[in-house]
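Subject: mismatched residue count in predicted assembly?

I count 502 residues in my input, but I want to confirm that the predicted structure covers every chain. Input:
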Amino acid sequence: MSTNPWIWVGAISTIMIFTYLWKENPLYRLAEHVFVGISVGYLICVTWYNVLHPKLYVPLFHEHQWILIVPLVMSIMMLFRFSSKHGWLSFWPLAFLIGFSGYGIPASIDTNMLKQIQATINVSFAGGIIPIITALVILLGTLSCLIYFYFSFPHKGAVGKIAKFGSMLLMISFGASFGYTVMARISLLIGRVLFLLRDWLGVVH
Amino acid sequence: MSIENNNNNNNNNNNNKNKTWFQAILNLDKRFVYIFIFLAVSLPFFLDPVVDIKSTKWVQSAYDLVDEAAQKRKPIIIGFDYDPATLAELQPMAVSILRHAFSKNVKVVGINFILNGTSLAATTMENIAKEYGKKNGEDYAFFGYLPQPTVVLLNFGENFRKSYKKDYYGKDLNELPMLKGLQNFDDFHVVFCLSGTGLPGTYIVYGVDRFKFNYVAGVTAVSAADYYPYLQSGQMKGLLGGMKAAAEYEFISGKISDGMRGMASQSWGHITIIFFIIVGNILFYAKKRYEDKEKNS
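Triage response: the counts match. Full output below for your records.
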């Protein structure tokens, strides 16, 4: 069994959170509140030491880079979001942020749409039977799924059959995603169980 | 008359028995399911935990890129963009990649855009570096946390010193010997982003597509399916999806750790869930049939 007090804190916190599986209880509530409190405290500390101190406080007040007054004022304006009377002041820095995010629109279109379309058009049929099957699945799968979401034609006859094939492929992909989700959740449980059994109790190595 | 009554009573008793049997199982307290899953996950740790694993093409590709980095004597970047919530899946990947890199004398630069994972990343790098006798500043460097990954990645494409002046420990980056001559993505052989958030996508939009570098994402199993299209388009050179990918990486590098150890539990956990799904479906249809019969009679 571990003699490290922090391992004990981690183990007891884990068990307190797990008690929720039995039912809602004060132990779970306590652990939840402690977690939220510590996370916020940690967030404030790291933000100060990694961001605000080296990138704002030191350059502004020690190196006198006065231009940094602009982001400082904008940050303060953002805090007016909590005021019902002066909340409009937060719209200015928000507008700046939203404006900057516009920079990402062409980049996102290029990355997530144009490059994907290009890759689908240029799919390779060379290299044997399996690559051919893979290429066909990609090509026909993409087209049939697109037809499934095309509502200008009634889904009847050949269009209906292709759309149905597309919907079947979508169901398969949802199933794969769900399978991955189950795997992820089990992995998280494995992480905690291994921590309790190995790091805390020391019954497995 | 009495015989008819007896028969009716017997039928009613049987029906009631069936009903209670169905109801008892269908109304099984979910806490029993939790107990079964907990046992299925924890018991394999007491038995032989190693499961036979074959590596997938995309994990092998990630492994090969680190090998190439060793041959070309170029450093690599690891984005430790995870926090304790996804630790179980992503930490084994980080550990495996670090062990592989340090064992081949590949220098590593760590960055982080997830605030709650900052000290986690620093501790992981320190611990694995210690295993291989590697020194901070000479063999590895951790730049720490910065917000606004879009701006940081764009700056990194030109010169990372635009965003990072000092490392996580407060040392000036120009004083770190391993960073001499390094300036941007071109000077690194591969960039890894380990994250359960949308950050692997941000790396592609603001990094890969603009600056063209070898990129591998390590993601949680939940989000793995979303990233496969980037493999086909060549925007990603490798993909590590969930704990299984970590196990595969461990298998290739021949160093068994938490990933492979967890695979037996993973399998038994899945078998238990599949068992409950099958039993639940059988009972659902049996109950429906029973109720239809009851209605008809």
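The longest strand of chain B covers residues 76-81. Marking this ticket as 'not a bug'.
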